[in-house]
């Protein structure tokens, strides 16, 4: 009898323990947010099956910007009762299909959602019991396409950091502006800020430390990071920053004439008015697909070169309490009016391959540079159309980059475009701010097993494959041991920076015991190739060329560079 009672007691103990375990596991998947409870899932890494992490997708951080909320700053999401399932990614924000090379429209206006990834295995391996550093990713896409859905956090989950990816409105929905209170503009940047505020209020429920937040992004995401450094509205919502292949000083990241573009769009839809109020009210009634297609139609918004400037992009707002950006980015950096936090910035060796993609897919014709050589003149120089400096700049650019030969030569054209679209603005950013904050500069030159360039360099966006696990339908995960080593090094440097504010806080054999020095007057930078090394004075000849040209022919004050 005693034996049976003991067996029954043992069985009941096991059942209760099992139920408690199941209950604990279930509780681990349910988290509080300021708007209600959500349920995620425990995921095994696709990159390393020994690594597990918690995943929460489609987490709302703002109200759907539809109807009366279109062309407005984001509003807080509505609360819900019960437990909301967050295991599926949200729709991408409205954009032209095929990275704006297609003619169709994809995505939804209801797109302001986050994805959150919390390490389980990495926390246990590192014996980390307290809140973890947080890394908030802002995707790129020239402010006209992109999504949080295309990048997986599997590589980053090998480290004890919480990762958040966010979506924000792009193109006409994110950046239409009448330069007044009816459509202030920069709604996409304000979406990002709203998401950062959500992180501050909620990330503790996901094991994250709201006092140790790193914002990082590539291309338009990298430019966005700098916008947040500049905007007073973003201060206090992040503590470190990384800009990859992008700066707020790059020409594609700014729209000089947003109000003109808004009224051109309205005129296409028969909205004949000079009233901002009437224009915006009528545009809110237009079907989102029709609106998106018209915003890309050159017969509607006028001629534009896709990689140079978009009809709808970040712009300066009229000064007000609600303005995100109302001062020149260049002057803000020059005056030291930005958030002073540890900052990492760099670029790839063949960034101009991005622009040549448009030539290959026939979205642009390279011969127009012979027909219209004024395209070689940076619009940031503020040179008037009747100035003799136009011809002088054309002559000097042709001589320096094209050796006085045909300006349609692909090799030289890509080299020029690397400078004109990316490197010139990135280097100028470094020169303007390095004395005021801890800054680390890199050049990514590792070509790897899946090169995407045209002439043997590292193309725009190519480093992303080592930082994020690919989720696109045509993406292939890295396979070679050399590529995997590069990924481990990149992940280690980036997460070291997020954890400590220093990418090499101690010597590490994985990093070849390199100490990455802060950028100073000697201009040291990390060369990220098959091996890591330190060099000095990045982009020296090109930088000197542009500085001399701007000094002679440029007309300050500048907004971009």
From TrEMBL:
Signal peptide per UniProt: 1-24
Originating organism: Ignelater luminosus
Annotated protein name in UniProt: Carboxylic ester hydrolase
EC number(s) given by UniProt: 3.1.1.-
First-tier enzyme category under EC: hydrolase
Record keywords, A-Z: Disulfide bond, Glycoprotein, Hydrolase, Serine esterase, Signal
Family recorded in the similarity comment: Belongs to the type-B carboxylesterase/lipase family.
Cited InterPro entries: AB_hydrolase_fold, CarbesteraseB, Carboxylesterase_B_AS, Type-B_Carboxylest/Lipase
Glycoprotein among keywords: yes
Keyword Glycoprotein: yes
UniProt domain Carboxylesterase type B: residue ranges: 29-546
GO MF annotations in UniProt: carboxylic ester hydrolase activity
Entry-linked PROSITE patterns: CARBOXYLESTERASE_B_1
Pfam families registered for this protein in UniProt: COesterase (PF00135)
């Amino acid at each position: 009898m005693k034996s049976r009672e003991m067996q029954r007691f043992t069985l009941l103990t096991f059942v209760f323990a099992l139920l408690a375990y199941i209950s604990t596991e279930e509780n681990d998947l349910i988290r509080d947010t300021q708007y209600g409870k959500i349920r995620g899932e425990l995921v095994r890494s696709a990159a390393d099956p020994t690594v597990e992490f918690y995943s929460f997708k489609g987490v709302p951080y703002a109200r759907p910007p539809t109807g009366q909320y279109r062309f407005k700053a984001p509003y807080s999401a509505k609360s819900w009762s019960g437990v909301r399932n967050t295991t599926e990614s949200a729709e991408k924000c409205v954009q032209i299909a095929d990275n704006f090379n297609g003619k169709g429209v994809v995505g939804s206006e209801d797109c302001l959602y986050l994805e959150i990834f919390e390490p389980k295995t990495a926390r246990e391996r590192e014996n980390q019991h307290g809140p973890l550093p947080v890394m908030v990713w802002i995707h790129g896409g020239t402010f006209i396409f992109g999504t949080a859905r295309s990048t997986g956090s599997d590589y980053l989950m090998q480290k004890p950091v919480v990762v958040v990816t966010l979506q924000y409105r792009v193109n006409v929905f994110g950046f239409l502006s009448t330069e007044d209170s009816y459509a202030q503009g920069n709604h996409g940047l304000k979406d990002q800020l709203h998401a950062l505020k959500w992180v501050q209020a909620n990330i503790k429920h996901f094991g994250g430390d709201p006092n140790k937040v790193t914002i990082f992004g590539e291309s338009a995401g990298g430019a966005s990071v700098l916008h947040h450094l500049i905007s007073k509205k973003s201060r206090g919502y992040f503590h470190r920053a990384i800009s990859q292949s992008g700066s707020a000083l790059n020409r594609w990241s700014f729209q000089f004439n947003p109000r003109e573009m808004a009224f051109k769009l309205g005129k296409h839809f028969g909205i004949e008015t000079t009233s901002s109020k009437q224009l915006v009210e009528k545009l809110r009634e237009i079907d989102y697909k029709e609106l998106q297609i018209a915003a890309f139609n050159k017969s509607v918004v006028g001629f534009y070169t896709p990689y140079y400037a978009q009809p709808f992009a970040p712009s300066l707002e009229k000064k007000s309490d609600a303005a995100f950006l109302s001062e020149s980015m260049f002057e803000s950096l020059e005056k030291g009016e930005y958030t002073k936090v540890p900052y990492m910035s760099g670029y790839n060796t063949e960034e101009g391959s991005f622009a040549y993609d448009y030539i290959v897919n026939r979205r642009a014709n390279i011969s127009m540079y012979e027909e219209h050589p004024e395209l070689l003149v940076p619009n940031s120089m503020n040179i008037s159309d009747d100035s003799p400096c136009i011809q002088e700049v054309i002559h000097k650019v042709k001589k320096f980059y094209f050796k006085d030969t045909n300006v349609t030569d692909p090799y030289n054209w890509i080299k020029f475009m690397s400078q004109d679209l990316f490197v010139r603005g990135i280097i100028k950013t470094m020169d303007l701010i390095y004395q005021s904050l801890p800054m680390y500069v890199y050049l990514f030159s590792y070509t790897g097993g899946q090169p995407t360039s045209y002439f043997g360099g590292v193309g725009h966006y190519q480093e992303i494959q080592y930082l994020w696990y690919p989720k696109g339908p045509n993406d292939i995960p890295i396979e070679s041991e050399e590529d995997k080593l590069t990924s481990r090094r990149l992940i280690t440097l980036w997460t070291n920076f997020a954890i400590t504010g220093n990418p090499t806080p101690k010597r590490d054999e994985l990093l070849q015991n390199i100490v990455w020095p802060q950028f100073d007057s000697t201009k040291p930078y990390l060369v990220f190739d098959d091996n890591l090394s330190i060099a000095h004075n990045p982009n020296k000849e090109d930088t000197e060329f542009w500085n001399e040209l701007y000094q002679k022919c440029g007309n300050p004050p500048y907004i971009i560079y």
